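User: I'm new to structure prediction. If I give you an amino acid sequence, what do you actually give back? Let's try with this one:
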Amino acid sequence: MFTILPIKGFIDQIDGFFCDGIHAGLKPNGNNDLGFIYSDTPCEVEAVFTKNRFQAAPLKHFQMYEKGFKTNFVLINSKNANAMTGQKGIDDINEVFASLNHDLLNPIMSSTGVIANPLPKEKIIKGANSFNLSAKSGENLSKAIMTTDAYPKTCMYEVKLQDGSSFKIGAVAKGAGMINPNLATMLCFICTDAAIKREDMKELLEANSHSTFNAISVDGDTSTNDTVLLLANKKSNAYDKEAFKEALRLVMHDMAMLMVADGEGAKKAVAFEVVGAKDDKQAEIAAKALSNSLLVKTALFGEDPNFGRIASTIGASQIECDETKLVISYNDVKVYENGVILFDEACEARAAEVLKNSEYKVLCNIGIGEGKFTAYGCDLGYKYVEINADYRT
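Assistant: Good question. You get back a string of structure tokens that encode the predicted 3D arrangement of the chain. For your 393 residues, that looks like this:
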């Protein structure tokens, strides 16, 4: 038995973790753009990365360390992705770390921003050398890693175990655009003082990624820098695998849902729940097709309950399906059932009311088997084009 309680605050509330964010001159508007996470005890570390074949220099740098390495420091910059920069991008990271006046163990770098620009290493070195590693400024860090995010993304939980011991787990993340299954243009840093076994870290990260970060889409694009990092300093001496797995799932789900809700220019966060598919894999294919469809997204933006776009997308996904067995609902408003169109004037009005909400569910019962999967997406409107047309400026 265990109890998981949400608590207010940032990752700096976890014993042994410190963080801060500053303005180092990367963002021209004066906002925070450089941050760090530091642990006074070396951390076990595991990560999952983007599936994009052109992984950015920080990801390649991480993977150059020996398997099973520990770290006590993560340096994070926004405004520059250090992607498509070749060997120079990796060399620049090494130069940055060699120039810092802090006592660092296998430091990790994480970057987000514009692709194919050299890392502004002089500004980063100067800024990082001004860090106070005893700072506890989670709010500053959360703002420093933002790019097109409308707001910071954080969460914290305390887990109380049956034997009276407890541990904390929390996260800080960024992500609003280039969000697509196989991670997204997102960075997520999860910190815990749980005494988790090293072999459990990768297993639980990957298990929970499938239904959280790999189940969301804003625009169907997968970035070069996507990173989910789990740092465990084990200072609580408390651990239970099932409790940690559930707490980690909650943290990752919270961060994923905040990213969908903050999709660039988005006003709607929508769950696409597919049930009754031949198997779970076919349900996943259909659900992700719905969350990625531009026609579906624009209908959501227009608050138009055009279920024809839903049905068409399911059919185009090439899963096994039959229109005489299909049921489509917006929340509890059925619009199509087993080949019968229920979409009369009154039904359309009720469905349109659902689509006025900021959050709702599109439920599709394929009527074939027991497979199920839920993907998450958002609407797509004028603001998305405006943000991305002017992204480099």
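You can read the tokens as a compact description of the fold. Here is one thing that stands out. The first helix runs from residue 57 to 63.
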